[in-house]
């Protein structure tokens, strides 16, 4: 039997209460609210640098409204990336997404362009070998793996996810937050 300290139990209870409060607030967001929000994710390979990455995200002008670690089931990964089903990289992507916990983030950034676009600009190209210097995909494939070539030898994908439209922000947020609420 696993024994938890009172501090651990208190921390878990606080995290659970914060999650429930955010889920209640999330249900009341309007479509206009989603112009200033995005769904973001740190994939399993980069979770080891979670604190540094979140600090980096905040230093780029984003506010983290919600953050939690989540283990994707195969079903959730397949549903989440369903638009890629049948593509050559799909099975590797599902395998990567279920290989360990991800960090689920709901980010906010006010500005002239939608938040999802600002986030994608900070991520850089989907292929980390083509990501511009200073973008998150460029920075963390070098820091964590010695560069995109070394990383891509291990994986068919990259360390981050960014929704590609307001509709995707809504769909992805709802899919993952529903999964969290049901657990």
Helix-strand blueprint:
Blueprint: H1 6-27, E1 37-42, H2 50-59, E2 63-70, H3 74-80, H4 90-97, E3 102-108, H5 115-123, H6 136-145, H7 148-154, E4 160-162, H8 166-182
**Total helix count?**
8
Which percent range fits the helix content? 40-55%
- Percentage of residues in DSSP E strands: 5-15%
CATH superfamily: Nucleoside diphosphate kinase-like domain
Q: What is the CATH topology assignment?
A: Alpha-Beta Plaits
**Total beta strand runs:** 4
| Helix/strand order | HEHEHHEHHHEH
- Total of domains: 1
Integer average pLDDT: 86
Assembly type of the shown chains? Answer: single chain
Determine Rg (CA atoms, Å). Answer: 17 Å
Give your account of this protein's structure:
The protein is of the alpha+beta class and 183 residues long. The chain has one domain (30-182): Alpha-Beta Plaits. The protein is 49% helix and 13% strand. The chain contains 8 helices and 4 strands. The protein is globular. The two termini are 22 Å apart. Residues 1-13 have low confidence and may be disordered.
